[in-house]
């Protein structure tokens, strides 16, 4: 697209020179047409982009099992009541143990380890240290091996994971499946015990079966320091063995040295959590899948779990959704319009299966919004995110039982169903001969059984950004013309190099953005304890100081453009090109960030115009344009956008507390290696600054 | 096709040929003397600025080198190829120290001479410093040398440009005012090109290969025949593809530096003759004689002799250093053979690896021939069309070979981009400059992302990275095509404005 447009733009330059031109090819003429009418087309394309985004829930497809080898649900479950009662026994023992022994220690871990070894599993314990917040936004580009042990190890706080491995009778020990149950050994609730019960029931079965061809690893993760950290620590040690003896090993009576066992590459991982009571009578299974930077596990894994849960075990399956959208009236109106259009389409041709009921549309959009939001944040929604760093497909299954924890009769049934679900899933994964590869990796969910693949959602994004190269090309042509007119002799020498000055300014501001992005690293190094608010103030002041110095340095300041005779059209053209490149890059790294960023950045960039002439002309149209661009630029500032979104959610923030909140939010982004942070600092902020420059351009 | 006519060409007051030119010049001389001081100062300022920028680029490199872990650049497929990776070189050196053939195990594929020069540096450490420091310093020095040589080439080319413009009567003053200092620009483009910086800091041996190529061109431009031969032989020895440069270097030595086509000079002179004196019959044969430039056979023979001598030297040295490990046979098989048969199919920014990973085995030889002949096919037509501009021809050859190389890296692009900057005067009106700039920028940012998606995240596949490589190749092709057409347009524009000038004179 961009290539074509540039072609046309240059084509136009050629025709301007008045030399005879042979009839251009149709595609070139189409391009010239597009560039010549870029204002109309940019509006059309942007509107189409937003419309396509709204249409996405309609375009969602039903999921299907793509990999034939999975064959979910084709084998009869072998789980017996005996296995389930094994699970119940473990739960009961743990409860009793807790009642008798209060406080610290690793006794509960030992108890679980004892149970595991009774089931002929290899058992070991792993110690790990909770990690502080570290500034590593750039780690996104490096591999997962960059995990380093902290230098100062303290015995005061550390966690202990319990791991049991069942060797597969038909396997060669080169592949494995991981089951994780996060469990707080100190103050775990009654519901958490249930997850141990389910997996131990399953474990007791798996130790007997003959069909297993992949080893099974059961990791009881010590979730005292969050769910994610213990799993990440275990995975790091699993994949990158370190030959240095950690000081952590000497900490306790529990000797964990030299007994870390492995079981080959991990084919898939299932994280099981039992959490709180559901508000319905039936048991609810929630699936969480988003890993860091919007990466998703293979869709087949979700499909298998969903299929088994719905069709075999009768769970009510759901994925996260934005609840506030469910009651929004405008979404309802949109849904009804689409429904009506669908009905009309259906009367015209019964083969057109276009419309969906409005309620379903609302449901779908709420789920889609939630998917987009969590992908855009780039923060994993659970411990499964740690697996994605090692290219392992993993999902978290959170089951909310529909009964109180002390109901024994239903508990047995619950164990049976839960472990049958896991058994079916493991049996399917066990069938695989190669890694998950068949189905999609790039998708967003609109319901547990509906998804939008990359080919569909990219259309919305492409339409949104398509106007950028067009407008850039037409502005470039205009700017060149204006420049040639205004400065007759000196500039003509560099007819095709007029963009260099503008590019210098754009580069300078992007450099500034880069420095501002890295500043928090140094601010974190400042000795002494500072509240997030103070840190954000430090950040703000240093950034604005830097901006001021940049502006005063001659040459790279965007305001010194009078000297070079750069006009704003070329500056805007280069800005738009930079925004286009940045957005396209981001769409490949993390689609959701790019989509949300484009919704903000595209109109801001397109509407940015010097307000001086608009104020001078005093025409309604130009005044309106200036007003719109001012509003957009105001909203486009990251802090203000953050405040507005917070306000929409319902937490009004003003003044300095906003800075603190913003800092905390950004801190969470870089601590989770989210590329969104880089996007904000290195694409959004510079482009926003450039738009401000264009707004106040002395033209 | 629109050519932008140069402003100084366009104005009618411009054509000052023959006597009138001299008269005006004399009148202006007084003014000039006062102006000369200013100009000298200006020049001083300019060169001062050049040195500041050059120094700062060196400082920037040193800062980057001092980063721990070397920013992991040396493991990027864009930076180090199987031929240029320093890790492989260190491995080869280690093998040789262990009295094994450095080519054992298909690790090292470079020259044995480079091994003896750089190898000890990969092992030696200064206390407390990272191990790569000495090698990095060597590469930094190589970069500086290349930049200085480029500056030298540029100065020569600039002088030639001014001279030609004056001969054609297109430039009024004897001072080269209005001519861009292409040497300085090219040197700075080389030093500040992110590609160069990345390949210098990323410990690939391409700075040394580039230095050899630039050395050959410098020798040819300054007519230091042994130096030119030495550069050519070393460059060919290191990476084979610079062998194509033999043609432009021979043309430079035989016909002289870049100049507008000879027809134009003849035209101008005939007009001058018409104007200055009554055309006599006796002058006609003289003119006819000069329609062809004399080819300096002697210099070229001299050059060929030196090439032979230097290659003999290199071969003897190589044979000495490899005499226990299979000798020259082994070297040719493991270096040139490796380049030509594309054995290593690990991803790089070229297009060959993907193609040869896909192609059926029984077609492999056929396609190997097809792909390599691609470069050879273009040599002759280009040489015929651009024979009056041999340095530009060298640039085009290098650009084409960096597109169609079996193991390209960004170091190759940095070389041809800086050579391109030598022709800023001629290529001012190049089209698509902004588009190409955006394209190069986008592709070079996209490449690590695609690689990450494929290798680390596992959500992409080889097609992602290969698509990026195709895009890169396309942009390079557009770049080469546009450069050539801009150069040809420049020649045409010269011709046209000479014609219009003559028309005015006749009127």
Automatic annotation (TrEMBL), chain A:
| Record has Transmembrane as a keyword | yes
Q: Where are the transmembrane segments?
A: 30-56, 454-477, 506-524, 536-554, 574-602, 623-644, 676-696
Establish whether keyword RNA-binding is in the entry.
no
Location of region: Disordered? 1-20
Which UniProt key words apply to this protein?
Membrane, Transmembrane, Transmembrane helix
Q: Fetch the InterPro entries from UniProt.
A: Gaa1
Query: What is the name listed in the Swiss-Prot or TrEMBL entry for this protein?
Result: Glycosylphosphatidylinositol anchor attachment 1 protein
Automatic annotation (TrEMBL), chain B:
The transmembrane residues are 133-153, 195-218, 230-257, 303-323, 335-356, 362-384, 391-410, 430-450, 462-481
Any single GO CC term annotated in Swiss-Prot or TrEMBL for this entry: endoplasmic reticulum membrane
What does the UniProt entry say about where the protein is found? Endoplasmic reticulum membrane
Keyword annotations from UniProtKB, A to Z: Endoplasmic reticulum, GPI-anchor biosynthesis, Membrane, Transmembrane, Transmembrane helix
| Alphabetical list of InterPro entries matching this protein | PIG-U
Pfam annotation, one family:
PIG-U
Supply one GO BP term: GPI anchor biosynthetic process
- Which positions make up the signal peptide? none
Pathway listed: Glycolipid biosynthesis; glycosylphosphatidylinositol-anchor biosynthesis
Q: How does it sit in the membrane?
A: Multi-pass membrane protein
Keyword Glycoprotein (UniProt): no
Similarity remark: Belongs to the PIGU family.
Any idea what this protein is called?
GPI transamidase subunit PIG-U
Q: Which organism is it from?
A: Cardamine amara subsp. amara
């Amino acid at each position: 697209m961009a290539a074509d447009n540039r072609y046309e733009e240059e084509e136009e330059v050629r025709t301007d020179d008045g030399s005879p031109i042979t009839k251009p090819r149709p595609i070139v003429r189409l391009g010239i047409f597009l560039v010549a009418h870029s204002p109309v087309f940019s509006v059309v394309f942007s509107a189409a982009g937003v419309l396509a985004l709204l249409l996405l829930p309609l375009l969602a497809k039903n999921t299907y099992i793509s990999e034939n080898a999975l064959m979910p649900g084709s084998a009869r479950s072998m789980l017996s009541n005996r296995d389930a009662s094994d699970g119940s026994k473990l739960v009961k023992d743990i409860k009793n143990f807790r009642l008798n022994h209060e406080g610290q220690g690793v006794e509960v871990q030992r108890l679980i380890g004892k149970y595991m070894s009774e089931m002929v599993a290899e058992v070991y314990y792993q110690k790990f240290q909770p990690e502080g917040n570290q500034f590593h936004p750039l780690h996104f580009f490096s591999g997962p091996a960059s995990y380093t042990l902290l230098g100062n190890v303290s015995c005061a706080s550390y966690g202990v994971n319990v791991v049991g491995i069942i060797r597969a009778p038909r396997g060669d020990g080169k592949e494995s499946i991981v089951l994780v149950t996060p469990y707080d050994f100190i103050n775990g609730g009654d519901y958490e015990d249930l997850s141990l019960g389910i997996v131990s029931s399953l474990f007791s079965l798996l130790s007997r079966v003959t069909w297993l061809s992949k080893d099974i690893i059961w990791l009881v993760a010590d979730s005292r320091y969050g769910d994610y950290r213990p799993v990440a620590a275990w995975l790091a040690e699993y994949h990158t063995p370190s030959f240095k003896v950690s000081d952590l090993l000497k900490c306790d009576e529990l000797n964990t040295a030299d007994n870390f066992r492995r079981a080959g590459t991990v084919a898939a991982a299932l994280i099981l959590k039992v959490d709180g009571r559901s508000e319905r009578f039936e048991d609810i299974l929630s699936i969480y899948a988003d890993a860091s930077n919007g990466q998703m596990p293979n869709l087949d894994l979700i499909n298998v779990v969903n299929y088994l849960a719905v069709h075999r075990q009768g769970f009510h399956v759901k994925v996260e959704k934005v609840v506030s959208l469910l009651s929004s009236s405008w979404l309802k109106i949109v849904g009804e319009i689409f429904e009506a259009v669908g009905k009309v389409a259906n009367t015209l041709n019964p083969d057109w299966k276009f419309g969906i009921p409005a309620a379903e549309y609302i449901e779908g959009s709420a789920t889609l919004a939630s998917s987009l939001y969590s992908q855009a944040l780039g923060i994993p929604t659970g411990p499964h995110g740690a697996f994605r760093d090692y290219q392992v497909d993993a999902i978290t299954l959170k089951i909310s039982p529909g009964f109180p924890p002390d109901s024994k009769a239903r508990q047995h049934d619950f164990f049976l169903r839960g472990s049958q679900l896991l058994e079916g899933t493991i049996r399917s994964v066990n069938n695989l001969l190669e890694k998950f590869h068949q189905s999609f990796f790039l998708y967003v969910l609109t319901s547990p059984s509906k998804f939008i693949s990359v080919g569909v959602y990219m259309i919305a994004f492409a339409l949104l950004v398509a106007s950028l190269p067009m407008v850039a090309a037409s502005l470039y042509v205009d700017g060149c013309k204006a420049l040639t007119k205004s400065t007759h002799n000196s500039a003509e020498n560099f007819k095709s190099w007029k963009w260099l000055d503008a590019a210098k300014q754009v580069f300078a501001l992007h450099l500034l953005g880069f420095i501002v992005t890295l500043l928090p690293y140094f601010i974190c190094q400042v000795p002494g304890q500072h509240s997030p608010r103070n840190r954000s103030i430090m950040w703000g002041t240093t950034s604005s100081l830097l901006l001021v110095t940049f502006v005063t340095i001659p040459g790279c300041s965007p305001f010194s453009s009078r000297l070079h005779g750069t006009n704003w059209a070329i500056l805007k053209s280069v800005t738009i090109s930079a925004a286009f490149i940045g957005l396209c890059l981001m769409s490949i790294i993390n689609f959701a960030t790019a989509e949300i960023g484009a919704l903000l950045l595209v109109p801001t960039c397109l509407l940015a115009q010097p307000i001086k002439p608009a104020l001078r002309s005093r025409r309604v149209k130009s005044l309106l344009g200036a007003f719109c661009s001012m509003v957009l630029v105001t909203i486009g500032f990251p802090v203000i956008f953050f405040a507005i979104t917070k306000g929409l959610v319902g937490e009004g923030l003003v003044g300095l507390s906003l800075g603190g909140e913003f800092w905390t939010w950004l801190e969470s982004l870089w601590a989770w290696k989210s590329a969104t942070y880089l996007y904000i600092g290195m694409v959004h902020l510079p482009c926003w600054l450039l738009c401000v420059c264009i707004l106040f351009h002395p033209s | 096709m629109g050519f932008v006519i140069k402003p100084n060409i366009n104005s009618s007051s411009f054509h000052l040929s023959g006597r009138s030119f001299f008269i005006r010049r004399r009148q202006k001389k007084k003014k000039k003397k006062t102006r000369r001081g200013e100009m000298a100062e200006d020049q001083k300022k300019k060169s001062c600025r050049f040195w500041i920028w050059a120094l700062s680029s060196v400082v920037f490199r040193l800062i980057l080198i001092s980063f721990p872990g070397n920013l992991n650049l040396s493991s990027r497929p864009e930076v180090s190829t199987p031929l240029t990776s320093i890790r492989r070189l260190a491995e080869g050196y280690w093998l040789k120290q262990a009295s094994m053939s450095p080519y054992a195990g298909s690790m090292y594929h470079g020259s044995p001479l480079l091994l003896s020069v750089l190898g000890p540096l990969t092992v030696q450490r200064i206390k407390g410093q990272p191990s790569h420091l000495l090698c990095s310093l060597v590469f930094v020095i190589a970069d500086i040398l290349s930049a200085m040589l480029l500056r030298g080439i540029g100065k020569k080319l600039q002088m030639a440009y001014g001279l030609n413009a004056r001969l054609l009567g297109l430039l009024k003053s004897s001072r080269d005012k209005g001519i861009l200092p292409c040497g300085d620009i090219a040197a700075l483009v080389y030093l500040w090109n992110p590609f160069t910086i990345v390949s210098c800091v990323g410990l690939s041996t391409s700075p040394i290969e580039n230095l050899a190529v630039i050395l050959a061109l410098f020798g040819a431009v300054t007519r230091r025949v042994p130096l030119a031969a030495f550069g050519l032989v070393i460059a060919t020895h290191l990476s084979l593809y610079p062998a194509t440069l033999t043609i432009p270097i021979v043309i430079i030595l035989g016909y002289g530096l870049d100049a507008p086509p000879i027809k134009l000079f003849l035209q101008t002179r005939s007009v001058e003759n018409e104007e200055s004196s009554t055309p006599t019959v006796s002058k006609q044969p003289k003119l006819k004689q000069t329609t062809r430039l004399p080819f300096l056979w002697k210099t070229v023979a001299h050059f060929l002799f030196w090439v032979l001598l230097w290659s003999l030297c290199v071969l003897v040295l190589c044979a000495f250093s490899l005499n226990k490990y299979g000798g020259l046979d082994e070297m040719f098989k493991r270096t040139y053979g490796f380049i030509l048969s594309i054995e290593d199919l690990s991803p790089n920014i070229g297009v060959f690896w993907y193609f040869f990973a896909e192609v059926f085995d029984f077609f492999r030889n056929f396609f190997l021939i097809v792909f390599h002949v691609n470069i050879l096919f273009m040599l002759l037509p280009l040489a015929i069309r651009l024979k009056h501009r041999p340095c530009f021809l060298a640039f085009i050859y290098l650009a084409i070979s960096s597109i169609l190389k079996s193991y390209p890296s960004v170091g190759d692009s940095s070389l041809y981009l800086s050579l391109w900057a030598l022709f800023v005067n001629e290529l001012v009106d190049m089209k698509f400059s902004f588009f190409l700039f955006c394209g190069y920028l986008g592709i070079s940012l996209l490449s690590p992302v695609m690689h990450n998606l494929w290798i680390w995240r596992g959500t992409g596949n080889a097609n992602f990275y290969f698509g990026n490589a195709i895009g890169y190749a396309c942009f390079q092709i557009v770049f080469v095509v546009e450069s050539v057409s801009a150069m040809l347009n420049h020649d045409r524009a010269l011709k046209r404005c000479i014609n219009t000038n003559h028309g005015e004179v006749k009127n």
